[in-house]
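User: I've been trying to design a sequence by hand for this structure and keep getting stuck. Would you show me what you'd pick, starting by listing the structure so we're on the same page?

Assistant: Good idea, let's start from the same input. This is the structure you sent:
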């Protein structure tokens, strides 16, 4: 079961040793994951209509773009070495993707 805290611009969740932080900043919605020092992030513009960008960190260079949130989460999970179903997603980030 994931633990969550949220306010208007940020939210966190954790499960299975993975911490997820969702925030709106610099014109983007960013969902960043951390597990045992490994990181991955999924970003989308604040309007929510652009493709999702997968990065090694929230501020890192783009690795790949995806239309679907599930595909972006698959790539993020691969970077962390976990199954996509293990990634906790704060409620505020659940509607990312096209």
């Amino acid at each position: 079961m994931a633990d969550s805290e949220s306010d208007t611009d940020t939210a966190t969740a954790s499960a299975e040793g993975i911490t997820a932080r969702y925030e709106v900043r610099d014109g983007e919605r960013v969902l960043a994951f951390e597990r045992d020092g490994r990181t991955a992030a999924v970003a989308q513009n604040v309007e929510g209509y652009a493709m999702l960008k997968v990065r090694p960190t929230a501020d890192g260079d783009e690795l790949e773009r995806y239309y679907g949130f599930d595909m972006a989460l698959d790539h993020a999970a691969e970077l962390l070495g976990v199954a996509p179903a293990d990634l906790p997603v704060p409620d505020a980030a659940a509607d990312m993707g096209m």
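That's my pick for every position. To get oriented when you compare it with your attempt: The chain has one helix and seven strands. The longest strand covers residues 18-25.
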